[in-house]
Amino acid sequence: MAVNEELLKQVLEQIRPNLQADGGDMSYVGVDDEGVVSLELLGHCAGCPMSQLTLSMGIERILKEHVPGVTRVVAVNDLGDGMQDLYDEYTPF
Description:
Layout: H1 5-20, E1 24-31, E2 36-43, H2 44-47, H3 51-66, E3 72-75, H4 83-89
Parallel strand pairs: 2-3
Antiparallel strand pairs: 1-2
């Protein structure tokens, strides 16, 4: 099922103020054919150790509830120095 990008962007705009209240933000990168939404985390969210929890239990949960076809949300931030492999190993989902 193709994801309605317009609806996806509208829901992301409704989520954005919650991130901004804590000094963070996000930028929509895209969605693939399998419903995986890519976001770039910005501000305090970019380096926050709780960002994966924010993605999976916050943003992903809301998108799955309100946007048909969304299967997962991933961050595209570059952690550098090989940290992405270590980070992926310990992600909850």
